[in-house]
Specification:
Largest sheet: 5 strands, parallel
Distance between the termini: 24 Å
Order of helices and strands: EEHEHEEEEHEHEH
Number of domains: 1
Low-confidence stretches: 1-19
Number of helices: 5
Shape: globular
CATH architecture: 3-Layer(aba) Sandwich
Strand order of the largest sheet: 4-3-7-8-9
CATH topology: Rossmann fold
Strand content: 15-25%
Mean pLDDT: 87
């Protein structure tokens, strides 16, 4: 039986406004069954493709976004999030940091209200501009975590990654 690390139910106060904890945002994101995955690679051996495949295996309807691909794993691939029909409300960004801010602006233009910016360092993976963009456009952000750690039945190494982060106080709350 796989172990799932506990998630807190509390909200935190920040700047006089209620903000959902990162843990709540992760739960919200994973409860949405159809979302865009921006930056999914055409290369089957790429990490983003392994994540793409696992999300599909977990029952998600993942909409690939890559301007250099027509289809990925038989799914129509879109060049930009604004082109997705029917629209999505959330997106997983697997993009290089140099273009993530631009992609967040495209997400805002497409009406996306929840974005998971992939990373391995939590909030350190976000640029100051990414936070400004998200705040000014009403986009909630899951900052810099690997979705594999939060799967209902993670592989052992992803479960260990989550366990280590919990032990050193870096697991989201």
């Amino acid at each position: 039986m796989p172990f799932r690390l506990p998630k807190p139910d509390e909200m935190r106060q920040k700047g006089g406004q209620n903000h959902m904890t990162t843990s709540h945002l992760i739960d919200e994101f994973l409860s949405i069954k159809r979302f865009a995955m921006v930056g999914v690679s055409r290369n089957k051996r790429d990490f983003s493709r392994r994540l793409f495949d696992e999300l599909i295996d977990q029952g998600y309807d993942v909409v690939p976004v890559n301007p250099g691909a027509v289809a990925i794993e038989g799914r129509r691939c879109f060049g930009k999030v604004q082109e997705i029909e029917p629209r999505v409300s959330s997106a997983l960004l697997m993009t290089p940091p140099a273009i993530t801010d631009r992609i967040l602006l495209e997400c805002a233009d497409a009406g996306i209200t929840l974005a998971w910016v992939y990373g391995i360092s939590g909030e350190r993976d976000l640029s100051p501009d990414a936070l400004k963009i998200s705040n000014s456009h009403g986009i909630k952000i899951v900052p810099g975590y690997c979705p594999f750690m939060f799967m209902p039945e993670p592989a052992l190494h992803h479960w260990l990654h989550a366990l280590v982060w919990k032990a050193i106080g870096r697991y989201p709350n």
